[in-house]
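Internal tracking record. Fields below are filled automatically when a chain is submitted to the structure queue. Please do not edit lines marked as system-generated. If the sequence contains nonstandard residues, flag them in the REMARKS field before resubmitting.
Queue: standard
Priority: normal
Entity type: single polypeptide chain
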Amino acid sequence: MELVIAALIMGFAGSFHCVGMCGSIAFALPLNRTSNLTKTIGILFYNFGRISTYVLLGTLLGVFGKGLKLAGILQYVSITIGIVIIASVVLPSFLKKISFTSSYYLKFNSWVKNKLGKRLTKKSNTSLLILGLLNGLLPCGLVWVAMVASITYGGVGSGALFMLLFGLGTFPMMFALPYFSSSISNAFRTKMTKAIPFILVAFGILFILRGLNLDIPFISPPLSQDGTEVKSCCH
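SYSTEM-GENERATED OUTPUT FOLLOWS
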């Protein structure tokens, strides 16, 4: 239950980040706007692709998380992740100096953007599905935080489930953006962008609390030595 609540809250709260950072793609989707039905179907195809990519990433990272759990260091990893997230907001200039970007990643990111740009010119549900799949691979701080969170649950299934629920949490906003694109102003998007640092700090604090094993329901559940949640007695 803690996983479900955390993933949905992270997705829903973090989706306000999407207004400022990902809104341009959502507004540019090649939707068939001949009717509300065709527009809705197109948006559903796009979001299905996007969330499918999240689930795949969660599955792959779950393998890594399983290894960390078996090594008995999962809660320390959670604390470290929380500190890094907060530091990225408080000390962004310092982190830029020590950041490392692989040339392979840059090439891959360039390939994704190139394919995405070509699909934005093709008006079909297939293109919208592929756009969603590709969008899930674009660099996004919010998605990266969710991916790291999926690792801390220490399992393949839990990693996939976390990313699925995270994606569903972002769905209301990511559906509304392209559907009501003509009604969303640049000023509103700018205001939402200003909220991003506060959202990231809140997530960082949650990571730290989770790793501290404070026995706080849904926030810092008690963990056993292998990093799994301790079940309370039913008697």
